[in-house]
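Sample A.
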Amino acid sequence: MKNVLLLRANPRHTGYTQRVTDLFLQGLRDARARVTDVDVTALNLASCLGCYDCWLVTPGQCVHGDAMAGQLELILAADVIVCATPLYYYSMSSYLKAYFERTFPLAAPGLVPSGLGYSRNSTRYPEKWKGKKLISIIVGALRDPETYRPANETFRLIADSLDLELGGQLTRPESHLLDYPLSKPKTLKRIEAAFIEAGREAGTTGRLTAETMTAAALPLAVDLRHFRDYSNIFWANAGAAENRGRPLVEVQQRVARDVRILMREMVRCLDPKATARVKAVLQFEFPDRDLAYHVRVDCGKAELKEGRAAKPDLQVRCPADIWAGIFMRLTDVRDALKNRQLVLSGDKSLFSRLDRFFPPPTG
């Protein structure tokens, strides 16, 4: 059982960093760790002045009489320090940066070799640092692992400078896609399970396994093009006049039902065996959104294009929300047809086989 200091440095408490950190906390509790959960953004810490009074005038004590004094005691008492932050400009949030700057009273004059072979400041109270570990959680919207490297390297160096063992690093890219459960339901469950397991590992040994860290960072978008498309659709929704001022959680829910994403996901889920002998053009029209797409199915392959086809074999016409309900298996197709919310023309047998052609994603 470990004493864990959990430092949350995300100013938005309804976002993705909060979500995955809550999963991590669930794992800590499963491991029966003693957790001190700190919202760093609420501490209202003054900035470090670089005055060296905590070294030369009042050793170990900062000139600022604020909440950081209590935080230094928590750091000294912890076996594991966990830092959770969104990725801001390839680094941690400013709240956490200010927090670590204010740990200067825990250092002492004089240089010694660091664990990585660099030089670091001497450690005040060296008997209290033995075995301490640092774990980082970084969550961001970007996909490329290189964009997270500077922040991860910073945490690695912070651990080295404070004479801490780096217990592991969790990176969660593509955060916007965590709100699209239909994309890769099994992968999403593996990601969520990985954050819970990481909490269990942190609460028992203070070290994360390579398998757990890899699972937490599993990709959700099929490729970079899909990732960019979905991200741009998200921000187009967030910036739409009807959504301005709405909580982002509401925007996220709308994005999950956006036909621009649903059509791409449908085509991505093509079953090549079920369509091995099928050659057809399927047209989908959403007049309320002034959108139209056509899907060309050609013997196990499918291609999605915007706009109407010259001679479609099947035409599907309905409001975007109705199609979202059908796609997500929340709307009864028979009711939609009966109420003329869904209108079909052409070869209607193709529509009856859509579930076979494009089964729900399972990855």
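Sample B.
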Amino acid sequence: MVVRKFVLAMFAVLLAVGVSFGAEPIRVGQISTYTGDFAAYGIAERYSGQIAVEEINAAGGILGRPIELIWYDCRTNAEDMVMAATRLVEQDNVVAIIGPSGSGLHIAASPVITAAQIPHIGTLPTNPLVTRDEDGNVRPFNFRLCFLDPYQGRMIAYFAANNLRLMKAGVLYDVASDYSHGLREFFLESFAEFGGEVVADEGFRGEMDVDFGAQLTNIRDSGADVLIFPFMGRALPMAVRQARDLGLDMPIVGGDGYGDFMWEVTGDALGNSYWVSHVDRDDPTLADFFRKYEETTGTECQEFMNAVLAYDAFFWLKDAIERAGEPDPLKIRDALAATENLQLMHTVLTMDEFHNPKDKDGVILRCDPATQSAVFHMRIRPE
């Protein structure tokens, strides 16, 4: 491995409120995109993970032992992700790793995870290759809490065709992103099945492009009546703003890349847009968590999908270790795979044979310029 000249951000925190310091801690790793293009998502995951660990330790820890949380920032970079995973398994001796959200980051680190035989839980990595290899075999130590891109792409197509009744789609996607490439592919397949037609299919390179004028002009001239934006990160609000500036005032439908940070760039341009979500922010069962998040961080929980799934990932791991009877990575892996009807904060979790959640409903959010937030629109489970 090429060693880059940088200092990898790392914190090791023993959060042992209410737990005897005489008990040997259980070392758990967390990786988040604290900086880089996905920073908004990673900051939320970092804070919510810390909240979860504090709560677990205050309640007695796991098997009477506190969690020692070791955290790295992978800076939304695949090479940094691999380095963080390598340090966690080779130097820090963690029993499991949680996060981050990016599919490409998980795929990049998978060889390290598999070789070390350390279970890795993804928060929002939706690409199928996160938990299955190119031959369709399950990756034995990779798990996730979110539904997958094939399901998400189908939700976007179903919503556009069957709920909005819009049948001519203009697609803008990030050719450099595993997430975006996969989500686009599954949308195209399902939209045709539902009778829709893709009249424009335009790509950009997220690490380089900030001007989408040429692609959006082609979409405008194609006669599209709905815009499909299957990407995420800083490019997303820029594309929304530029689309509206070019007079593309039709509905925008996108995946789970929505974040409240987008309003700062778009202003009211986010109106008439709809986004797939894993979480309904208005669900009353989440209110206590959002209140604690604000009390702990001094900020409102904006990237709520990432925050909620990161929080629940720690409690899923806690349950698996307790069922395993000891913090042994192989036994934890087996317990994660055997998870059935586990009540977490945002869902009841059951794993399928490929380490993915079974039968999770999706949520469609609608952006409301009056409140500058995304509000619940409908639950969805496409045919």
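B remarks: The chain has a mean pLDDT of 92. The radius of gyration is 20 Å.
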